[in-house]
UniProtKB/TrEMBL annotation:
Pfam families: UBD. This is Ubiquitin domain-containing protein 2-like. Residues 1-28 are annotated as: Disordered. It comes from Durio zibethinus (Durian). The gene is LOC111300210. Residues 16-113 form the DC-UbP/UBTD2 N-terminal domain. Residues 16-25 have a biased composition (Basic residues). PANTHER family: UBIQUITIN DOMAIN CONTAINING 1 PROTEIN-RELATED.
Amino acid sequence: MGCAGSTPAKGDVNVKKIRKPKPWKHPQPITKSQLVQMREEFWDTAPHYGGRKEIWDALRAAGEADLTLAQAIVDSAGIIVQNADLTVCYDERGAKYELPKYVLSEPTNLIRESGK
């Protein structure tokens, strides 16, 4: 027979459900290719500012995934979500990871490039 119910695991009490960042506007309109370049530069340099590479990799995967998969990635990596939009997170050792909104969503003033 199956289980009648389930109880949260001991660490699940403070699990914050993640959500997409609120709409935001870049200081000047940018193209999709500029946004992609900014994201690549961030992810290439982020591990050099502290924290563990595997947590940065998990945060990148979560940021690029749909919400259900992102939640599973964050939960399985043991990431503590401070802000539900993933802009501030911690690992189990207490290291802080700050993500700019541009790696998590597109700005409202994104320039749509024609022909691409």
